[in-house]
Amino acid sequence: MLFIFGFAFPVMFTLSKIIFLAWGILFIADIYSLFRSSSVLSCERSTPTMMSLGDENEIRIKISNLSLIPVQARIIDELPAQFQKRDFEITLPMQSREQKTVVYRLQPLRRGEFIFGDINVFIQNSIGLVVRRIIFSQAKNVPVFPSILQMKTMELRAFSKISTLQGIKRLRRLGHSYEFEQIKNYVARDDYRSINWKATSRKSDLMVNQYEDEKAQQIYSLIDKSRSMHMPFGGMSLLDYAINTSLVISNIALRKQDKAGLITFSDKMDTILPAERNRMQLRKILELLYKQKENQHEANFELMYTTVRNTVKGRSLLFLYTNFESQYAMERVLPILRKLNRLHLLVVVFFENTEIEEFGKQQTESIRDIYVQTIAQKYSAEKHQIIQQLRQYGIQSILTDPKELSVQTINKYLELKARGMI
After folding, report:
1. pTM for the full predicted model
2. DSSP of 128-194
3. How many CB atoms lie within 10 A of CB 189?
4. Least confident among 164-168, 184-188, 378-382
5. Where are the domains of the chain?
6. Any residues with CB less than 8 A from the CB of 375 and at least 6 apart, and which?
7. Within 312-397, where are the H helices?
8. Superfamily of domain 148-172+214-418
9. Contacts 24+ apart (CB under 8 A), 374-381
10. What are residue 11's DSSP bridge partners?
11. DSSP symbols for 250-266
């Protein structure tokens, strides 16, 4: 514009040339300061060896300014396509020779291989006329496994003295176990039937035998992978919640000196891992759970029952993860569940539909709302009727919010151990 006005006013033409010359010098100086060295920045991404499904996993980017001038850096990390984040960027100022660490968190909602791409860093100095793009090759494959973080957290809760404050119940052991632990001095409220008279005569003081929960019992996770487990909740499917909980309960069982096993099925049998107690068993369970895929067919409970009867030797605790959307769906498989419960201790785990539960509690404003809310309440009532019907036939059951699945399952396991029912 100054050059245009310079045709009418010669003074402005001279001023335009001076300004243009100054701008050109700044432009060249800006290019020189940014491109004179090939090593202006160093950047490195640090990711976990494996990420945990449904948990926030920490990603770190370590960036260093190797130049003698301060720069403004804009970091664009090429995240895995599963996250669908197209606008991810971080902007931060960096002084000369300064090093910074950027931390962000990702929450994967499905299992599998997640591919991180390159890191693109756009820098500019205080002049701000030129932006330089630097690409750091940081491509990396990171597998997403069932939640190891949740497994460790629940392990600490289950074996912590303050676990009652965190959702895990500690129950008094009922009945009498035959696993001898030690002989100790008698205190008030000890079972007088456990008095060791020989030790009492030697010590001239009352001594009692102390027992502990029985060990080496078989704990199986039976996972239904049919279409009824495809329902999403919080971005994850019910199958993924069941997979996370199976890993948690297997770890707790192994820590309790029990044996852990795994069976998955849909219209046909898929995975069968016999219950064992060794150092590699948890790793085998983790790798098998990682490979599980959903199936669009109906579950074949008859085939599952035949397989369990032929494979599982000895009375075991079976956690069956499935989902009954109606009472009719449960009644179809009830004869099979009753036969399975005669051979083993069966716990049927199925899920609440929290959206329908919340909808059934909302205030209504029209006749249509009343009608829809009545249907929602009827649906919720059917879930509780399923529990009552299972209890009528002596089948243990858990109806839970998917978020509380792990806590509820651990509580049921500890309860059954304390009651000596396994």
Report:
1. 0.80
2. -S--EEEEE---EEEEEES-HHHHHHHHHHHT-TTGGGGT----PPPS---EEEEEEE--TT--GGG
3. 6
4. 164-168
5. 41-145, 148-172+214-418, 180-212
6. none
7. 327-343, 354-360, 367-392
8. von Willebrand factor, type A domain (3.40.50.410)
9. 379/353, 380/352, 380/353, 380/356
10. none
11. HHHHHHTT-EEEEEEES
Residue with more model confidence, 418 or 61: 61
Q: pLDDT digit string (tens) for 41-79?
A: 999 999 999 999 999 999 999 999 988 888 999 999 999
Report yes or no: 250 and 335 within 8 Å, Cβ to Cβ: no
- Return d(Cα 97, Cα 92) in angstroms, integer: 14
CB neighbour class for 310 (10 Å; exposed up to 12, middle 13-18, buried from 19): exposed
Location of structure tokens 């399975």: 340
**Tens of pLDDT, residues 137-179:** 999 999 999 998 889 888 887 776 544 445 565 555 544 555 5
User: What secondary structure letter does DSSP report for 195?
Assistant: B
**Helices within 227-300 (DSSP H only):** 238-255, 281-290
How many residues does the structure list for the chain?
422
Q: In CATH, what is the architecture of 41-145?
A: Sandwich (2.60)
Place of tokens 């005669």: 342
